[in-house]
Specification:
single chain, mainly beta, 2 helices, globular
């Protein structure tokens, strides 16, 4: 089932190219979701009361800082978002070179995202709010599942 999201933010998202995978919540954000967590947001805020950020990752909103954060979970850069059996993948999105969003790959090749305080969805997502994937990361899947 699709959801009604603002067309200015997600012009390529239609009722037929995504589906809702969980209810709307402000408990976590897209970075946490892509990292596999749904208990608190992840963001380099410098304030642990606001959001979690791995202590070894730089407290800055840069692509290298986000790569370092996901490296704490075993992710490293890879060439693309093509499904690779035995690996879990994350796409890091930027807008104007600034990280804005992350999504994790589902086994069927689609992507799963948390959209702000909205829903988690499965999709193929690009748009003016989050930009486009700037970098893909992968890690070996544990037990064959990412």
């Amino acid at each position: 089932m699709g959801i009604d999201l603002p067309s200015y933010a997600f012009p390529d998202l239609t009722a037929t190219n995504h589906y809702v995978t969980s209810p709307a919540t402000s408990e976590y954000n897209c970075i946490a979701w892509a990292a596999g967590f749904s208990d608190e947001p992840w963001w380099p805020s410098g304030d642990p009361a606001v959001a979690y950020w791995p202590p070894s990752a730089p407290q800055e909103v840069t692509l290298p800082a986000f790569v370092a954060a996901f490296a704490t979970l075993g992710y490293s850069p890879c060439p693309d978002g093509v499904v690779e059996p035995g690996y879990g993948k994350v796409a890091l999105y930027t807008l104007g070179g600034v990280p804005t969003h992350a999504a994790r790959q589902l086994p069927d090749g689609r992507w799963s995202s948390k959209l702000g305080n909205w829903y988690d969805i499965a999709h193929a997502l690009d748009g003016p709010v989050y930009g486009s994937p700037a970098l893909f990361l992968r890690r070996p899947a544990e037990g064959g599942v990412a």
